[in-house]
Hints:
The chain is mostly beta strands. 0% of the residues lie in helices and 39% in strands.
Amino acid sequence: xxxxxxxxxxxxxxxxxxxxxxxxxxxxxxxxxxxxxxxxxxxxxxxxxxxxxxxxxxxxxxxxxxxxxxxxxxxxxxxxxxxxxxxxxxxxxxxxxxxxxxxxxxxxxxxxxxxxxxxxxxxxxxxxxxxxxxxxxxxxxxxxxxxxxxxxxxxxxxxxxxxxxxxxxxxxxx
Length: 174
């Protein structure tokens, strides 16, 4: 469901684990990796989080991002991190009482997330989206400030390049 690269040779892919004839909403997921630009792939590790099957909702993860060859994150709607290249993964509490991670970006030193107070597949709710940053392997989060509050909706984007972070929050008029 997702791919992340830290160089032209070193990459990871997040996918469902095989659990019968219908993949999706399996009890877990797996990460495969390459160190030779995709010529060969191998199983790196497994997560206890499932990848929700399209149209069926649920909790788990759908995206993966690595900042270095060791430090990476799996997210949307839940949040997991690895510090050993993807062999083992630990769940991380979403900061600020968030109920789901809408997007995540990494650099070689930091991680940035946009969190929603709404539960996954729960529609709009009260409150505002929040954006957070932490050291790449840390779980001590600092809230990012903006000139105005982020509008609550079901979609937001965060991207990082060098020392610059971009947050896009699409406002919907109703």
